[in-house]
Write a structure and sequence with these properties.
CATH topology of the largest domain: Endonuclease I-creI
Distance between the termini: 66 Å
Helix content: 40-55%
CATH superfamily of the largest domain: Homing endonucleases
Strand order of the largest sheet: 1-2-4-3
CATH class of the largest domain: Alpha Beta
Shape: globular
Number of helices: 7
Order of helices and strands: HHEEHEEHHHEEH
Strand content: 15-25%
Bound molecules: zinc ion
Structural class: alpha+beta
Radius of gyration: 20 Å
């Protein structure tokens, strides 16, 4: 069986849609350029961290790039060891983003474009400027119209505000119910 034939079998639309959905929820694009990078030190990666190695192996076999490593013991939060799929390099990150593009949400598409822009420009963008250029919050709600509010100069998402306050009320109720009985 030839390589192309293998790809046709694994990279079905159904599999790619699954991989992109998985990445959209758990993955990230990252790039870094040293501010003193006169020597051109820069890095770019795509990665997904998960406690379930099988899911990461499946993801790897569909995108056909990168490696799964681990287990790693995370310091905070998750007590379970985690595994990480990652791929580095400009070409690979560009390829992974392009093959998942159709199914990625607005937020991940922006992160991908930013990572590539940073890498290509060879300069680290100002974090505040990046935030200002964001058109959607982390969860994909529009940062415009009725959904936008300002906290000083910081732009906030009202939908996420409401969710956070509902969650904190629910936690408070749960605490009170727990101590009352
Ligand atoms: Zn939001």
């Amino acid at each position: 069986m030839g390589f192309t034939c293998f790809l046709n079998r694994v990279r079905t639309r159904e599999n790619m849609a699954w991989a992109a959905g998985f990445f959209d929820g758990e993955g990230s694009f990252w790039s870094n350029v040293r501010n003193d990078a006169s020597d051109g030190v820069r890095a770019i990666t795509a990665s997904v961290t998960n406690t379930d190695r099988e899911l990461l192996d499946k993801f790897q076999s569909i995108v056909g790039l990168g490696k799964v490593r681990g287990p790693y013991q995370e310091q905070r939060g998750n007590r379970q060891p985690v595994y990480r799929w990652s791929v580095g390099g400009h070409r690979a990150v560009q390829a992974v983003g392009a093959m998942m593009w159709e199914w990625l949400g607005t937020y991940k598409r922006q992160r991908w474009a930013e990572a590539l822009t940073t890498w290509r420009a060879g300069v680290r963008p100002n974090a505040i400027e990046l935030k200002r250029a964001q058109t959607h919050c982390k969860w994909g709600h529009p940062l415009s119209g009725d959904n936008l509010r300002f906290n000083g100069r910081q732009r906030m998402c009202r939908t996420c505000d409401r969710r956070r306050s509902a969650e904190s009320k629910a936690r408070k109720r749960a605490r009170e119910a727990g101590s009352g009985s």
